[in-house]
Amino acid sequence: MREEGLFAGADEVRLTIELVVPSSQVGRIIGKGGQNVRELQRSTGSMIKLPNSFNEEETNVHIVGSFFSVQVSLS
C-alpha cells in the first residue's frame, strides 16, 4: 500500500481483509435472506465476499473496500 494512496481521491487504495470466522457463525454475518450482508455493504461501501461452501470449522470472509469502509465494516 502506498502512503499517498490513503488520501487519493479517484485512485484510492483498495484493501482486502481476510477474517477467519467459525463456520457456525457465518449465518449471523449473512443474516436472514442475506439481509445483514446487504445492509453492511450498503452502509459502509465495502464488499463482503463469502465462499459458496464452508469448511466444517472455519470460513474465510473477505472484506474489500477503501481503508475507511473496511474499518467501519470491522467495527
- At CATH level 3, the topology of the domain at 23-74 is Ribosomal Protein S8, Chain: A, domain 1
Q: Please write the CATH class name of the domain at 23-74.
A: Alpha Beta
**DSSP summary, beta strand count:** 3
How is the main sheet built? 3 strands, antiparallel
Name the structural class. alpha+beta
**Which residue ranges are poorly predicted, with pLDDT under 50 across at least 5 consecutive positions?**
1-8
Task: Give the ordered list of helices and strands.
Answer: EHHEEH
Distance between the termini: 22 Å
> Do you know the CATH architecture of the domain at 23-74?
2-Layer Sandwich
Number of helices: 3
CATH H-level superfamily title of the domain at 23-74: K Homology domain, type 1
Q: Can you tell me the overall shape?
A: globular
Major sheet: order of its strands?
1-3-2
- The whole-number mean of residue pLDDT values reads 84
InterPro entries: KH_dom, KH_dom_type_1, KH_dom_type_1_sf
Pfam family, one: KH_1
Keywords: Repeat, RNA-binding
Organism: Diaphorina citri
